[in-house]
Design brief:
Helix content is 38%, strand content 24%. By secondary structure, it is α/β, with parallel strands linked by helices. Helix 2 runs antiparallel to helix 3. The longest helix has 20 residues.
């Protein structure tokens, strides 16, 4: 059984939060560069060029890509041959405590905006730490711990939607709804988007799948040919909307559409769409 120290997890999450806020992933930057070459609208080309320049400045000067440095969403995959060694002064501290400590430290040291309120409806008082993080945990084979941090902005998250379809719904009907969700997101969600789609499972799993889809590398198609074709078809339909970068028209409304699916009940067909803005910030590390 392999043991990983609590403090190593804290330090890893801290670094991931800071780097995610400052450095646009290579696949997203490449997608923007490809979009710049293909874009036919001159105003849209200027906007995409500005987004690429913004990414360069953020990386070079270690400043956030966007003023909304997001809610920290952390995917944790713990190998079943891994245990966490708590600190001597806090023997009850666990993996989730380490993740939240890392988020707090990362947002403090990185001078990142803290955007979490302790409760949602009454006082909405800022926690001043950007915690608690949203943590999705899974136990997997092996002796490694994988941590993936996504700093998810509020503007694009607010435009995400879920719908429970009848199991008889056609691919065309579901596609029409997904495209309409993206259309309604509009300029408020800062296009060009990355569109995460979860199909199947149940109410909560479809939403989780749509968020997890956003961790996939742009351009990597689903291993299932049917869903791979659906991804390409949706991307084409969404870009034909003409919404364009920042909603000011153009060919580039989305950089990619990514579908994840899961088995579901015979009476159900849940579908979730998670909208991500052009500042698609996520980093991963394996310990």
């Amino acid at each position: 059984m392999r043991q990983i120290k609590y403090q190593q997890i804290v330090e890893t999450v801290e670094k991931l939060c800071i780097s995610a806020a400052h450095e646009l992933p290579d696949d997203v930057l490449d997608a923007l560069k490809q979009a710049l070459k293909k874009e036919s609208n001159s105003n849209a080309r200027n906007i995409i060029a500005s987004l690429i320049e913004n990414a360069r400045i953020a990386a070079d000067e270690n400043i956030p890509l966007c003023q909304d440095t997001g809610l920290a969403v952390v995917f944790v995959e713990q190998g079943n041959d891994v245990t966490i060694k708590p600190p001597d002064d806090n023997p009850k501290a666990n993996l989730f405590d380490a993740v939240n400590a890392g988020v707090q430290s990362g947002y403090e040291k990185g001078y990142l905006r803290k955007s979490v309120v302790a409760e949602p409806l009454n006082e909405r008082k800022n926690t001043q730490t950007n915690t608690p993080a949203i943590i999705h945990y899974s136990l997997v084979p092996g002796d490694r711990l994988k941590l993936s941090v996504m700093t998810k902005g509020g503007g694009c998250e607010n435009k995400s939607q879920f719908k429970m379809f009848n199991p008889t719904a056609s691919k065309e009907l579901i596609s029409e709804w997904i495209v309409e969700v993206v259309k309604n997101a509009g300029a408020d969600a800062c296009p060009p988007f990355v569109v995460g789609i979860g199909i199947g499972g149940n109410f909560e799993l479809s939403c989780l799948l749509s968020k997890k889809a956003l961790l996939r590398k742009l351009g990597d198609r689903n291993e299932n040919p049917f869903y791979a074709e659906l991804e390409k078809d949706l991307l084409k339909k969404i870009n034909s909307l003409g919404l364009g970068p920042q909603g000011l028209s153009g060919d580039t409304t989305a950089l990619d559409c990514i579908v994840e699916f899961a088995p579901c009940h015979i009476a159900s067909l849940p579908v979730a769409v998670n909208i991500e803005c052009h500042s698609h910030r996520h980093k991963s590390a394996v310990i």
